[in-house]
Amino acid sequence: MAASSRPEFNGSPKDLMRQLPDDATIWQNLKAAIASSSGFQRWQLEQQGDDTLNDLTLELRVQRYLRETLETLAY
Fold first, then answer.
1. 3-17, 23-37, 47-61: which has the minimum mean pLDDT?
2. What letters, b where the CB count within 10 A reaches 16 and e where it falls short, cover 33-66?
3. Taking Cα atoms as reference points, which of 34, 23, 38 lies closest to residue 64?
4. pLDDT given at position 72
5. Where does the pLDDT of residue 4 fall: very low under 50, low under 70, confident under 90, or very high at 90 and above?
6. So where are the chain's domains?
7. Would you tell me how many other CB atoms lie within 10 Å of the CB of residue 67?
8. Where are the alpha helices (DSSP H) in the chain?
9. Average pLDDT over residues 48-71
10. pTM score, two decimals?
């Protein structure tokens, strides 16, 4: 039987939670990954006529992209 590639964790759930990054760090990394994705880049190009998009921070643009993408998927 092959050895597992996952490391063993013998601590308590609280110990595990202390090792995880906080929500803000996770969001920053996720936002950066989304912003560099081809889907987001294409979406921004499609929005070029929308002057309000230019005034939004990257955070708000990513949020809008996610909302519109989820609305499309839900439809």
1. 3-17
2. ebeeeeebeebeeebeeeeeeeeeeeeebbebbe
3. 34
4. 93
5. low
6. 23-74
7. 10
8. 13-19, 23-35, 38-46, 51-54, 58-74
9. 91
10. 0.69
